[in-house]
Structure formats: C-alpha cells, structure tokens
Design a protein that fits this description.
Elements lengths: L2 H15 L11 E5 L13 E5 L4 E7 L8 E2 L5 E2 L5 E11 L2 E11 L12 E4 L5 E3 L11 E5 L8 E3 L3 E8 L5 E10 L10 E4 L3 E4 L6 E2 L12 E4 L5 E5 L4 E3 L23 E5 L9 E7 L8 E7 L8 E8 L8 E10 L4 E8 L4 E8 L2 E9 L14 E3 L7 E8 L4 E10 L4 E13 L3 E7 L5 E7 L8 E7 L5 H6 L2 E6 L4 E6 L5 E5 L4 E5 L12 E7 L24 E5 L6 E7 L8 E5 L7 E3 L3 E5 L4 E10 L4 E10 L12 E4 L2 E5 L6 E6 L2 E4 L3 E5 L4 E9 L5 E12 L10 E6 L2 E2 L3 E4 L9 E4 L7 E4 L3 E9 L4 E12 L3 E7 L9 E9 L6 E6 L11 E5 L2 E8 L7 E7 L6 E7 L1 E2 L6 E9 L2 E8 L11 E5 L2 E9 L4 E9 L1 E2 L10 E4 L4 E3 L10 E4 L8 E3 ...
Parallel strand pairs: 8-13, 47-53, 54-60, 68-74, 75-80, 82-87, 89-96
Antiparallel strand pairs: 1-2, 2-5, 3-4, 3-6, 6-7, 9-11, 10-12, 12-13, 14-15, 15-16, 17-18, 18-19, 20-21, 21-22, 22-23, 24-25, 25-26, 26-27, 28-29, 29-30, 30-31, 32-33, 33-34, 34-35, 36-37, 37-38, 38-39, 40-41, 41-44, 42-43, 42-45, 45-46, 48-51, 49-50, 49-52, 52-53, 54-55, 56-58, 57-59, 59-60, ...
C-alpha cells in the first residue's frame, strides 16, 4: 500500500468512527482497534478501549454486547463484537475517591464476505497470465481494493510471475477483509529465502541458480555474525551485520533515525532475520533479532523492517526493542529460528548466559510473545562458553528436530544436542553431551547434514599454542553420547588456517568459513560416512576476490533446505513383492499424468496417481523411467533401481513327528542370512539346523537378503520329538600304524542291543550293518528302525597302536651274483622278551634265518615280521641289499646330417669299472645286434645300451639322443618372370628322402606346384623322421601382354575396282613387334583389297605376345540414278524412263502429274515408264517424282527418300 493511499484510508476510518471521544468536563475513553465484526480466521481482531484519566484507580466496563463476555475491570480492555450493529459502551470508574459514569455509542460494521473460489496456493505455466479476482461471482457494493505488493486498486489483478499476492477489500463502512494467494511458476525454484549470503569482507554467494556463484557487490565488512533474507524466488530483500541494514541495491536502508542496530561485529550470531506472519496477507514485516558480544551488554533485541516502504526497498520502522533485562537474564551470542510448516509461524530460540535456560519466542499473526522457558543442559557461566553457534537440524521421522549448542572451552569443548518440537515449541532434554577434548583448539561452528544423520563441528586453531584447526564429523544415528563421541571422523585439519562457522546451503552442501581466505571450504556429500566419501575441499568455492572471516549468515533453518524438483522415490525393493514408487509432481497442484516404464519388459503404466506399485519377478538393477506430463511440461526422469532377490518359498514339512536324538532341518533356499526360532527364541543362524537332544515345539526359519535383511521368506514346522531306543557301537578299539599308514583292520557292527535296526548310514558313506576300517579316527553311524521311525546314532574311536622300532645292521654282498650278504636286528623298542622273527624274500616266500639274523644271501629285497609284544602291533620291515656297482660310462654322440640322415653315431667310454658286454636297443626295445662300445650309421632318435661287467653287475644308459645337424638342402632356384595368363611349374631341388613333408605358402602340400599369379612363393620342407627342416622362397613376376587397339571389322566395297581397306594396330607401345601372317609384313598398318580374315601377332621385348584377327567385309553405299529426261516419240532412242541402282532394298518410285496425282508407281527398279497412264500418253512437260529405298548394308539408317523431276519430250 502506498503511503498516500494509507493516509487516505486512515482519514476515512477516522471520519466514520471518531476514534477519540471527549468533552469539556470529563476525560473520556479512546476506542481503537477494529470497529468491525471479527474475521473468524484472525484471532487478533478485536475492539480496544483505553481510559484517558490517569488518576483513575478502578474500572467497570460494560460493552453493551448481550452475548459473550460483556464486562471487564481492566483499565484498557479489549472486546470482540460478533455481530454488526450499534452498541452503547459504559464505563464506571473511581478516581480520587469519586465514581463517575461515562457512556458512548459505537457502531460495529460488517466485514466483506470471504472471497469466492479463492485458492491460497496456485501454480501457473511459464508465460501464462492468471486473473486474481476475490469476487468472480459478484462483489459487495462500494468495495475498494488494495493489492499487495504494488498497490493496484482494481478488482481483478492479472499476474504472470510467482510470488505472494494479497488483496484487502474495504467496504464503505471502513471494514475490510484480506486474503492472500501464493502463485508459483511451474518448475521455477521456490523457497529460496536463504539464497543470498553476505559475510566477511564484502563477500557473498548467490544460490538462486542452484550452484553458488560469488557476489562481489556486498557491503558487509564484519568478522562474525550476519543475516540476509530473499523472497521465495531468491531475489534479495535486505541483509545486515546486526548494526546496519542494506537493501537490495546494497544501499543503507532508511530508518526513523541514524542510530545503529544493537548487534555486535564480534558476536557469533549477531543477527537473525525472521518474517512476521500475517493472518491472511503476504509477509511484509521482518524482525531483525540481534545479540551483543558476550563481553558487552549481553542484550537480545529486535528491530522491524517494513518492506512496503520506500518503493518496496524497505524501511526500518522500529529499532532495538529489548527482549531481556541484561542484569536479570543476560543472553549469550546465540540465536536461532525455525518455521513451523503446519501454521507458517516462527519459533525463535535464545540461550541465557550464567544459567542453563533456553528462551523460546513465538512469532504469530498476533505478534511476538515469549512462549516458554526451558532450563536444560549445562549452564554457560564463563564468557568463552557463551560464544559459538547454535543450530537446528531438519525434522526427523518422529517430527522432532535436533538443536545443537556449541560450548567452547577451556577447559573442555562440548556440544549439547537437544530435541525440539515444531508443533509445541518445546525443547526436550536431557541432551546428548559430546566432549570434544580440551581447548585449544576451540569449538565454534556446528551444522547438520541434510538428512540429519551427521553433525559437523569446526574447531578454531591456535598457532601460538600449536593447536591446529579441525573439522569433525559425528554419527547421530548411534543415539548414545559415548558411541556418538567415539564415532567422530577427522574430515580435515590445518596448522595455518583458522576455521569458522558452518552453514548448509540450499544445494545440500555444507560450507566452512576460513578466516582471511578467498575461498570457503565445502563438504560436498555431507550425508556420507567417511572422510573420503564426504568429498571435503578446503578451497571449495571461490569468493571472487573477496575474503571470508569467521562468520557465515544466520538463517531461519527452513530457508536453506535443499530444493527438490520432479523425480521419484521408491521403497520395498524385493523381488516378487510389490515395490512402491512415488512420483514428485512437476508443479503441484497442476495435475500430472505419470507414465512408468519399469525396465523389465513389462508394459508401461499410465496414471494420474503419484503412487504406483510394481512387482519385479527377478533381482537385478533396472533402469526405471518416469514420464511426467502436464499442461506446462513434458519431461522424463530415469534412475537405476536395484531389486534384491527374495529367497524362494521355504517348504518345511509340517507337522513332523520324529523319533531322533539329533534333529536336522534345512531351509532349502539360498539366502544371505538365516535365523531359526524355536517357540519364538533364536537358536541358530545357519541354513541347516542340527540340534542334539532336540525338543518339541514350533520351529520357524527366516531366510533373508539385503543389507537390512528386508527381503524375507519364512518357513514354519510343528515338530514333535520322541526319544529313540538306546543304541551303542560298543567300546573304542584300535588299529596298528607305521608312521601315518595303517596296517590292520577292525570290524564295526551296528546291530547291537535289543532293538532291531534296519537302515544304516555310516559317516564313511557305507550303508551296511558291518564295516571294516583300517584307519584310526572317529566313526559314526545313524541307525533307523523302519517300523517305529526312530533314529539314533553313536560314535566310536579307533586308536592307533605303534609298531616296534628295529635297530638293524646290514652288509651287502661283494658281487652282484655272490651270496655273502647279511641282515642283523640288534635291538627292538620297546624292549621286551618274547619277540619272534619271520623272514621272507621279495616275493613273500619264506627264507631261513637265524632268529634276528639273516646270513649268506645275495643282493635283493628281504622282509621280516616281528611280533610277540602286546603293547605294539606286528611290525613288518623290508631291507634291500645291493652290491657295489662301479660301472660308470660316458656317451659321445655324433649327430646325423639332414643330407645324410643315417650318418649319426654313439661311442661309449668307461669312466670306471670294466665293462665286458654291450647290448644296444632302440626306443622300441628292439636289439640292434651290436656288442661294442661304438654304434654307427644311426638315424636321429633315442638309443639304450646295457653294459655288464665280469662280476654280473650292469648299468644301463637310456635315451641317448642322436640329433640332426641342420643344414641348407632346399633350393627353389632364381626368381622367374612369366607373361600374364601363362602358368609356371615350380619344382624344388632337394634330396628326395622318404617322409618329406611339403608346405607351400599357397597351402598346397605336393612336391611341385603350378602357379599363374605374381607374388612370393615359399616352400617349407620338413622330415619328421630326421628332424630336418628347410625353406626357400622365390618371386614370380607377371609381365603384361601387349595392349593395343585393332580395327576388328573393316568395310570394303569390293565391286569398285581398285578399292582398298586399311588394317591398323593402334595404341601400342613403341617397342612392340608385329607380324601379319598372310603377307609376312611386320608393321602395324597394312593395306588390303580383298574380303577376308587377316591374322596378326603382336609381341613385346619380354617375349609376351598376343594373336588377334581383323575381318574385312563387303559394305557398299546404296546407289540409285534417275535420268533427267526421256523421249517416248517412237524414234527408238530413250523411249522409256530407265532407273539404275544397286546395294538397296525396299525400292519404291512414284511419278506425279501437275495436280499431284500419281501417274506411275513401281517397287521394281527394272520396271520402266513409257510416258503414258492407263493407255493415254502424257504431254511433254516436266513431271516430279519420289524415290524411297533402304541401304542394304546399313539397315539401321531407315528409309531414304530422294525427290526430283524428269522431262518428257515428244
């Protein structure tokens, strides 16, 4: 409302109602407020009365209203008149012991009716104009209109931009009714009251575009607290450092005087701007709450800005209204606010100094009032404890917020976290108290992550005391103070920088003030869980050359909430169970059409409901897309959705009546986690359940997948367990072992006792009643009685008994065939009498020994069995006697040659011993018939030789390898040339050996090949028998044959005497040779005079030639001759017209008279005209004719016509 319009309206109301009643003899009373019936939605509407007699001491008011509370004894009461009409107000008062009575008549007017079809919130498309009309169905008579924000006075206002629009309708009686509507532009960013930041040394950031950009026009120059406010679209309204207020143009905002606001540059939260709610109008009043530094007055005050003033740039209309008495309840430097989204009122919270009291103020349409005092937490009694920040978090799932208070040291830094209820304005304790350790460094800033799960605290470093600045993260999800304190993660530290305030931006990031830096630190992902994942960058955002100090702007907490756009969320991500998808509207309340494509091959689903359920049959990651369409916008959003596998249905048999000692159950499905319950109590967490001494009851198994085990399948079984009959395998037993080997066996029998067991299942896998075991160990069997169904089991231990340890001396025979060897057992462990000895040869045939000795034996293997001691098992040992064999041979090998494959040789040299016999064999074991140390004429391969000496000792050399010496044996000859079209036979030169394998580069495998293409040809010859291989290569070049142009068909009219035809070879190279076979001419051009075919040979210097022919054929031009005159006069000369011609077909001739009539026609050139027609002679004169024919040798020319005339002479 403009200032002029406001004055006119006030004058009108004053004239109508007369706000002051007076006379010459008595002090009267003043009637104020609204002289109208109340607006039912605005509780502040009332009529006020004030006695002007200052000496009065008692009052009795009667408001003349028969309904409601009609009287009051207050000096300045208020009364609400519910009905329009005339009322007489009476006041009886006492002053100076005298009572007098006053009465006045007042009129209460009717307010305008509520607006018709009015919407408090509406959304339009970009470019659309919305008509706002409070009374589209008819307005009250005489109504006037005042629109906010520009003061328009028309009934209808057409708007095309977003914002708050209100209209006050004023009746002639002065009563008014006001309501507002918030207009939004589809997809335009809203709720951007915290979009503009001003702080430090002329620094600023603008978040209205999403990503912040520097603001360099700011006028603040302050070390700590500031505040700023923008409209819902992010357009700046004003900002302050708690001392001065700057308007949107960065000029000083005017006020009634030049005094400063009561804040302080050294107060942590020096200023906080909070809108003043209205009943139905748009917000235009703003309170600036200020705090002084803790070493100053400790004063909490507020000033008021009216944005209707000064052309919409605002004016400070009220300054430094105190909210506390510093001597009674001094305040700290902390002040915070949050909007109650339920009724759009604001809570303001301050913290007293010297006590633990929070003060909560409530800003409502009725004004500002202190709503509660809450003594909670630690009292701040030293000045340093009163510094630092206080912050609200966003609401949690219970509807409560966290309220964090930094309490700096010394001695100890702490953070206290309380709960706050938006609905009631109550602060709830006791707090979570986190001890951050001694100061310095000193705790200063605090902020919550957007999802409320993390809390960040900044610590101011002190370089003089070598205390670095630090930035900590705490996990509030742990709930318990000690666990939260233990969860702290050091995000960053600096020995040179001083860290200041923390403030979350509307982009969801948290910003850190760094003193004297041209950057702010940025926590890019504050909801994450580790130092790496939060992605902190110290120089995170450039301030455009301006400088940060310690402070960042203080906002109403909701003003920096992250903006949300269109999208969708989802919950319940288990396969084969409905997943719920919820779309965020494009621009509510405009109706959207939602088309879901779930990415699993199912048909798209279109609906106007924001919620849609879909069941995915299989686990996996699906690209789910949502198309949102309304009258303003058509957009598609896609995001991956991971579906977790729901375990298959668990099929436990139930009921179960079993007779077992050990109960085994299997969930039977794959899952990440399992829980078994018996009668509601957990008993196992494995897929398979095995319980000894099982009990009857209800068994439930849960199989789950997912980090939170959210995808579940459940199985249930009612189980009755009966005790089976007793069963035992008997006492433990033993087997004999030598080292780790067993050498005896034990039979185990599972049919012991009175019960007849029918089925057997051993842990060895066997299913017979009896089993034989040879190894020590634990053996178990499960037995079943099929008639009763009872199952029992038992285990038995098979121990290992040691064998006796023998002390033995042995002497080998002196020769390989002599019998003078011996074996003597000289001791046994354990020592005992009664041992017996049995001796055997290698074939287990008994050998006569002398007790513990075996004498006079040849070389070989002998065995002994020692037994007779019950503490040991029978001991079997084997001994081998070997004569000394000193035969040592050295083989010298001569390899074969590829050209002589049987030129190899082996010669043996005795290095020790005296060999007498040589036996040579090949690898197949065939004897080679040579008994000498030299073996000649060998092909490549492997050979064996056994050499024996005179004493019968032998030695064998095996796999003596005779190799092959590689050498060149293949030759393809020199490179070749061939004419194009000719073939070339390639024949290699090499020894023709059996087994040669040929591999040509063409893929052919024959000894010789024929080629007709240019290129390189390579041959590899391998002989597997000799191991020889060789290759050679030659190049074949194709010489092109002569190129030329020969006249193939040459015409000649041979009827003409002396006619000739030219035969010419053209276009060839200059070095070509020619030979014409009919005339033996050797030139490219010849002349002929006969019809026929002529052959010519054309060759180049490389010898490549071409044979070709040319044909000379008859071809004459047509000839027709018509004489110029003839004389059919009977003198015998030229009596008829004779036509001459040749080489034509289809001949026709026509002769015409002077009138164009045909008088002679013929198609036979031999027919003659005698000058008559139908027997009558034509007179002498000239007669025109036409002759037509076709060329015999040129039929393609078509019909040829000739015209002329012939003179007939008589």
């Amino acid at each position: 409302m403009t200032k002029k319009r406001f004055i006119l309206r006030f004058a009108l109301i004053s004239l109508l109602f007369g706000v002051l009643f007076s006379n010459a003899t008595h002090a009267q009373f003043v009637v104020g407020g609204r002289l109208c019936v109340p607006d039912p939605g605005c509780k502040s509407d009332s009529t006020s009365f004030r006695d002007t007699l200052s000496t009065a001491t008692a009052w009795q008011w009667n408001f003349g209203d028969m309904g409601g509370s009609n009287t009051s004894s207050l000096r300045n009461p208020k009364h609400v008149y519910r009905q329009a009409g005339t009322y007489r107000v009476t006041l009886r008062r006492t002053a100076n012991g005298q009572t007098d009575s006053l009465s006045r008549q007042i009129s209460i007017g009717q307010i305008p009716p509520p607006f018709q079809q009015w919407k408090p919130d509406t959304t339009i498309c970009p470019g659309e104009k919305l008509p706002l009309n409070p009374y589209p169905m008819g307005a009250p008579a005489g109504a006037k209109y005042v629109w906010y924000p520009k003061g328009d006075t028309t009934q209808i206002l057409r708007v095309d931009s977003s914002g708050c629009y209100s209209v006050e309708v004023i009746l002639p009686n002065g009563c008014s009714y006001e309501d507002r509507t918030n207009v939004k532009i589809c997809l335009e960013r809203t709720n951007q009251e915290g979009a503009k930041w001003f702080f430090g040394n002329n620094a600023g950031l603008d978040f209205s575009g999403g990503a912040p950009r520097p603001i360099t026009e700011g006028k603040l120059n302050t070390p700590e607290g500031t505040s700023a406010i923008s409209n819902s679209k992010g357009k700046l309204l004003f900002y302050t450092d708690g001392l001065r207020v700057y308007n949107r143009d960065h000029g000083i905002m005017p006020s009634k005087d030049t005094s400063l606001l009561a804040g302080s540059p050294n107060s942590s939260q020096s200023a906080l701007i909070v809108p003043q709610p209205t009943c139905r109008g748009c917000e235009y009043l703003y309170r600036i709450f200020t705090t002084t530094e803790i070493n100053g007055k400790k004063q909490l005050s507020y000033s008021t800005v009216d944005m209707r003033r000064n052309g919409g740039k605002g004016e400070v209309i009220e300054k430094n209204v105190p909210l506390n008495n510093p001597t009674v309840n001094p305040t700290t430097e902390r002040i915070v606010s949050v909007r109650n989204e339920r009724d759009s009122t604001y809570w303001i919270v301050s913290r007293d100094f010297g006590s633990n009291i929070f003060r909560v103020y409530h800003s409502t349409p009725a004004g500002l009032q202190e709503s509660g005092v809450f003594p909670l937490g630690q009292a701040e009694t030293s000045p340093n404890q009163a510094e630092g920040y206080m912050k609200f978090s966003d609401r949690d799932s219970t509807g409560l917020r966290n309220l964090a208070v930094v309490v700096p040291g010394p001695p100890q830094n702490k953070v206290q976290v309380f709960k706050f209820n938006d609905s009631t304005g109550r602060i709830i304790g006791p707090p979570l108290t986190l001890n951050l350790g001694p100061a310095p460094p000193k705790a200063y800033g605090v902020e919550f992550s957007p999802d409320g799960s993390k809390m960040y605290v900044s610590m101011q470093g002190d370089s003089a005391k070598k205390a670095p600045s630090r930035l900590w993260q705490f996990d509030l999800g742990l709930k318990d103070s000690s666990r939260i304190a233990d969860s702290k993660i050091l995000i960053d530290s600096s020995a040179t920088q001083i860290y200041g305030a923390l403030q979350v931006g509307s982009d969801g990031r948290i910003y850190l003030a760094v003193k004297d830096s041209q950057f702010l630190g940025v926590i890019n992902e504050p909801d994450q869980d580790s130092q790496r994942e939060v992605q902190f960058v110290l120089n995170g955002i450039n301030l455009g050359g301006k400088t940060s100090q310690l402070g960042l702007p203080n906002f109403v907490q909701n003003f920096t909430n992250e903006s949300s756009g269109p999208g969708f969320s989802y919950a319940d991500t288990c396969s084969n169970q409905p997943t719920t998808f919820t779309a965020s509207p494009l621009c509510d309340p405009i109706k959207d059409t939602y088309t879901w494509n779930f990415g699993d091959g199912s048909a798209p689903v279109t609906s106007q409901q924001t919620e849609q359920k879909h069941t995915f049959a299989k686990a996996g990651t699906y690209m789910v897309s949502l198309r949102l369409v309304n009258k303003c916008k058509d957009t598609t959003i896609t995001q991956p959705v991971t579906i977790i596998a729901t375990p298959d249905a668990i099929k436990l048999k139930s009921p179960i009546d079993t007779c077992v000692n050990t109960l085994s159950l299997d969930a039977g499905v794959q899952a990440e986690r399992y829980v078994w319950l018996r009668n509601g109590s957990p008993i196992a967490r494995t897929r398979k359940l095995t319980i000894t001494n099982a009990q009857s009851g209800t068994y439930i198994v849960l199989a789950a997948n997912g980090l939170e085990a959210q995808c579940l399948s459940q199985g249930r079984a009612q189980i009755t367990v009966r005790k089976p009959p007793a069963f035992s395998l008997g006492p433990d037993s033993s087997v004999c072992t030598t080292g780790s080997r067993s050498s005896s066996s034990v039979e185990l029998d599972a049919r012991r006792g009175p019960t007849r067991w029918d089925l057997f299942k051993w842990n060895t896998g066997e299913t017979t009643q009896k089993i034989t075991v040879t190894k020590p160990g634990t053996y178990a069997v499960q037995v079943t009685n099929t008639s009763s169904g009872c199952v029992n089991e038992d285990t038995l231990l098979i121990k290992a008994l040691p064998r006796a340890e023998l002390g033995v001396t042995s002497r080998p025979p002196t020769g390989c065939t002599t019998r003078d060897g011996s074996i003597v057992i000289f001791s046994t462990v354990p020592a005992a009498s009664g041992y017996t000895y049995e001796w055997f040869d290698a074939n287990n045939m008994p050998v006569t020994g002398a007790g513990s000795s075996l004498l006079n034996v040849a070389q070989g293997t002998y065995k002994v069995r020692v037994r007779g001691n019950p503490a040991t098992c029978a001991t079997d040992s084997a001994f081998t006697l070997r004569a000394v064999n000193n035969l040592r041979l050295q083989a010298a090998v001569v390899n074969a040659r590829c050209t002589l494959p049987t030129s190899g040789a082996i010669s043996l040299t005795a290095q020790s011993g005296n060999p007498t016999i040589y036996a040579w064999t090949n690898t197949a074991g065939m004897a080679l018939g040579v008994s000498s140390p030299l073996l000649n004429n060998l092909a490549p391969g492997r050979y064996n030789v056994k050499v024996t000496d005179a004493g019968g000792c032998d030695t064998t050399l095996r796999d003596i390898a005779v190799g092959v010496t590689q050498e060149k044996f293949l030759n393809l000859g020199p490179d070749r040339k061939r004419c194009v079209g000719d073939t070339l036979l390639l024949i290699p030169t090499l020894p023709l050996l059996a087994g040669n394998v040929y591999n040509w580069s063409t893929g052919e495998t024959t000894p010789r090949i024929t080629v007709n293409k240019a290129g390189s040809y390579k041959l590899t010859v391998t002989n597997p028998a000799t191991g020889c291989t060789d290759n050679d290569e030659l190049s074949v070049t194709l010489v092109p044959r002569p190129t030329y142009d020969l006249s193939k068909d040459v015409p000649l009219c041979d009827l003409d005497g002396g006619a000739t035809a030219n035969l010419v070879v053209r276009g060839g190279a200059s070095n070509l040779s020619y030979f014409w076979f009919h005339s033996e001419e050797i030139k490219p051009r010849i002349v002929v005079n006969r019809i026929g075919t002529y052959r010519v040979r054309i060759s180049n210097p490389e010898g490549c030639e071409v044979l070709d022919t040319a044909r000379v054929f008859v071809r004459c031009e047509p000839r027709v001759f018509v004489p110029d005159a003839f004389s059919p006069n009977g003198d015998g000369t030229n009596e008829v017209l004779t036509i001459f011609g040749d080489h034509f077909t289809d001949f026709e001739m026509r002769i015409f008279n002077r009138w164009g009539e045909i008088i002679f026609y013929t198609n036979d050139i031999n027919q003659k005209w005698d000058g008559s027609y139908r027997g009558s002679s034509y007179p002498p004169m000239t007669y025109p004719y036409t002759v037509s024919f076709k060329a015999k040798f040129f039929p393609e020319r078509g019909l040829i016509s000739q015209r002329g005339s012939v003179l007939l002479i008589r």
